[in-house]
Amino acid sequence: MSCVSMTNSTYCPSFAGFTAYIPHGVPVQDTASFDDYMAQTVSLGTTPTQSTMGDLIRNPSVFNCPGWDGTGLRYIQSTMCAYFAGMGSVYPVGSGSGTCNDGKPVTVPVCQQTMDSFKSSWDAVFSNTDFCPDGQNDAAASLIDFVVSVRDQLSSDSSTCLTAELAEREHCGYYYC
């Protein structure tokens, strides 16, 4: 596990004041590799790479929605930025009690409504039996539970909160390259 600055991130520019918590095994060492990882993560395409959110959702051994066609999931980029910043605000680093974001604002700048929209779209994907014949599995439930905990603990309702990163604002919450 490590901490990586989100300053100068091209995928999470609205989170420039935060540091991402990077769990062990995630191939991120610096801001550039964080952006590379985010580019792969937010991809919902169907080209198998085993590292995109689309691949994880469709993979029978991960989230188990083999019929998912990549549609319906909203605000994934903004939510993933909040996810990494949120982990940086709550998980202790190493054996110490400090976090990656010690001394920084407790709330991440994303609006609670944006994260609510992500959760609603996630629920819709996983409740669609054409996409996910067996429904949401434990791995998918675990991820969305953490997203909900970030939303409930750290997201903002202020008038200046972030609706979404630019790519998603321009497309009603959907990410387009």
Task: Describe this structure as you would to a colleague.
The chain is mainly alpha-helical and 177 residues long. It has one domain. It has six helices and two strands. A two-stranded antiparallel ribbon has the order 1-2. Helix 3 crosses helix 5 and helix 4 runs antiparallel to helix 5. The chain is globular, with a radius of gyration of 16 Å. The model has no long low-confidence stretch (mean pLDDT 84).
Shape: globular
- Order of strands across the main sheet: 1-2
Radius of gyration, whole Å = 16 Å
| Total of DSSP H or I helical runs spanning 4+ residues | 6
Unreliable sequence segments: none
Features:
single chain, 177 residues, mainly alpha, two-stranded antiparallel ribbon, 2 strands, 39% helix, 5% strand, globular
What's this model, at a glance?
With 177 residues, the chain is mainly alpha-helical. The chain is 39% helix and 5% strand.
Topology:
Elements: E1 2-5, E2 19-22, H1 31-41, H2 53-58, H3 76-90, H4 112-127, H5 138-154, H6 166-169
Antiparallel strand pairs: 1-2
